[in-house]
């Protein structure tokens, strides 16, 4: 069907895009409605003006150059939203536009320029908003130390966002982008657990959410939370896993600290429970003993007229029992106060040991005992308590010696990274290992008072002191073959 000129004219007038025709000198010949209203003009007002009038003054020189180069090399240029241009309205306001250009000829073969113009203000506004949101997202990712990754199973490829590289403190070249490459980055003690967790989340079709450790190229330890979910194909097979990684080192450190506090609190609670038990049971024993002696004495006084020696005998028994009771109570109080009176300080263990041995001089001479030790290290801890620890172990070595054999105590130590491992060895009667745990409990002894005197408090104090220095204590022994006490002490206790 042939189109008459009215249809052409209507199409021109009614086009939603603005159309401007100008000559090669930039003089506007014709505009449609969309064009003149886009620039705020009345019908016919633009005709005869220069295209330059539609360009913001500060861009006119630049435009002149572009216009000339288009005229000298005319070719159709399509409209693109990426080409953001600025138009200049009659009221001097700006309008965001996109332009398509072409060369046309009139009846007399004169070349003219056809410009199709689209207002893209809304598009530009939305794009700017989007850019803003994307910037905010990037900032949020950075602030929350969050990176994004994708693992494509088919070609074993891992894609990391720039944030992930930052979290791992790695350059692009330092990561092989394969699953094996990633596994090698994970802390070796967590590697198996990471593999298992990923496999488990695939098998059970559940999200992947774990924390693993990572050593940065500079050698510092990081805790990283990895979250991921799987994308399946139509057969239900995993195609890829998309996820995030977040640096949770600080949170994890706080959590570990909190766990440590909770653990310490539980130990304290247990200690309190133990003390309550001791007060109600173990200390009750000497009290009952005293009561028993008193009622015996009373019966004796009621029934006979006892001799003075007999009364003195009973009173001596009461005195002995009450003295023991007060020794036990004192020991108990002393144990409860350990680590609570003086602050930690630098402790030279050699110096400390000399003081301890001086304090035990009488026992050493009385037993013709010997002690050997190398120069001992300096550590940060509770001085009084550390002295008590050595004192209790050495005096036990002297006290539980074999009849007729001079005690020989050997002290030594070994470096164990953050800790010192100490040994206190004796050549005494030894301990049956079945009593291993029992002996570190309050008032637990293997001997009667008549046999070898004691309170059953010494080893409890040793355990408490060692634990206050973040260490452990244990012994190895066989009856008749001497005993070696081992204990570790953190080098730097705060
Ligand atoms: P006490 O020596 O006052 O009884 P301790 O708590 O120091 O209390 O020791 C608890 C028990 O452990 C002792 O009664 C003793 O049976 C045993 N024991 C401790 N040290 C040694 C040692 N070096 N050799 C043999 N037995 C020991």
UniProtKB/TrEMBL annotation:
Gene3D superfamilies: 1.10.287.130, 2.10.70.100, Histidine kinase-like ATPase, C-terminal domain (3.30.565.10), PAS domain (3.30.450.20). It comes from Daejeonella rubra. NCBIfam families: sensory_box. It holds the Pfam family PAS_9. PANTHER family: PAC DOMAIN-CONTAINING PROTEIN, PHYTOCHROME-LIKE PROTEIN CPH1. The keyword Acyltransferase does not apply. Its EC number is 2.7.13.3. InterPro entries: HATPase_C_sf (IPR036890), HATPase_dom (IPR003594), His_kinase_dom (IPR005467), HisK_dim/P_dom (IPR003661), HisK_dim/P_sf (IPR036097), PAC (IPR001610), PAS (IPR000014), PAS-assoc_C (IPR000700). Residues 4-57 form the PAS domain. GO terms for molecular function: phosphorelay sensor kinase activity. The keyword Transferase applies. Residues 208-260 form the PAC domain. This is histidine kinase. The lineage of its organism: Bacteria, Pseudomonadati, Bacteroidota, Sphingobacteriia, Sphingobacteriales. It catalyses: ATP + protein L-histidine = ADP + protein N-phospho-L-histidine. Residues 278-493 form the Histidine kinase domain. Keywords: Kinase, Phosphoprotein, Transferase.
């Amino acid at each position: 069907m042939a189109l008459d000129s009215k249809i052409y004219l209507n199409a021109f007038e009614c086009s939603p895009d603005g159309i401007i025709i100008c000559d090669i000198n930039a003089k506007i010949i014709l505009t449609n409605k969309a064009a003149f209203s886009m620039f705020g003009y009345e019908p016919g007002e633009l005709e005869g003006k220069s295209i330059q009038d539609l360009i913001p003054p500060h861009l006119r020189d630049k435009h002149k150059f572009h216009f000339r180069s288009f005229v000298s090399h005319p070719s159709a240029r399509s409209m693109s939203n990426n080409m953001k241009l600025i138009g200049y309205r009659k009221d001097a306001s700006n309008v965001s536009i996109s332009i398509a250009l072409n060369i046309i000829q009139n009846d007399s073969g004169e070349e003219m320029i056809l410009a199709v113009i689209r207002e893209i203000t809304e598009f530009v506004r939305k794009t700017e908003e989007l850019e803003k949101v994307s910037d905010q997202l990037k900032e949020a990712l950075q602030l929350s130390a969050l990176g994004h990754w994708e693992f494509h199973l088919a070609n074993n490829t891992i894609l990391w966002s720039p944030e992930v590289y930052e979290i791992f403190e790695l350059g692009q070249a330092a990561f092989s982008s394969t699953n094996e490459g990633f596994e090698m980055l994970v802390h070796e003690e967590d590697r198996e657990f990471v593999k298992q967790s990923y496999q488990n989340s695939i098998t059970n079709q559940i999200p992947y959410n774990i924390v693993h450790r990572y050593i940065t190229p500079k050698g510092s330890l990081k805790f990283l939370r990895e979250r991921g979910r799987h994308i399946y194909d139509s057969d239900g097979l995993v195609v890829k896993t998309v996820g995030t990684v977040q640096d949770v080192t600080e949170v994890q450190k706080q959590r570990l600290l909190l766990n440590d506090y909770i653990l310490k609190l539980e130990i304290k609670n247990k200690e309190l429970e133990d003390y309550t038990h001791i007060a109600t049971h173990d200390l009750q024993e000497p009290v009952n003993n005293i009561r028993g002696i008193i009622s015996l004495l009373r019966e004796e006084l009621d029934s006979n007229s006892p001799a003075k020696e007999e009364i003195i005998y009973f009173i001596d028994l009461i005195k002995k029992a009450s003295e023991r009771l007060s020794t036990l109570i004192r020991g108990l109080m002393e144990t409860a106060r350990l680590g609570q009176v003086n602050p930690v300080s630098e402790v030279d263990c050699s110096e400390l040991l000399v003081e301890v041995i001086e304090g035990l001089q009488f026992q050493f001479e009385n037993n013709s005992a010997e002690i050997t030790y190398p120069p001992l290290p300096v550590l940060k801890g509770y001085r009084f308590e550390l002295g008590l620890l050595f004192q209790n172990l050495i005096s036990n070595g002297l006290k539980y010696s074999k009849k007729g054999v001079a005690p020989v105590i050997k002290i030594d130590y070994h470096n164990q990274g953050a800790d010192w491992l100490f040994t206190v060895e004796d050549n005494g009667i030894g301990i049956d290992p079945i009593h291993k745990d029992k002996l570190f409990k309050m008032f637990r002894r293997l001997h009667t008072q008549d046999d070898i005197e004691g309170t059953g408090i010494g080893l409890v104090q040793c355990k408490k002191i060692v634990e206050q220095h973040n260490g452990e204590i244990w012994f190895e022994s066989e009856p008749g073959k001497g005993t070696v006490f081992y204990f570790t002490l953190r080098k730097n206790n705060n």
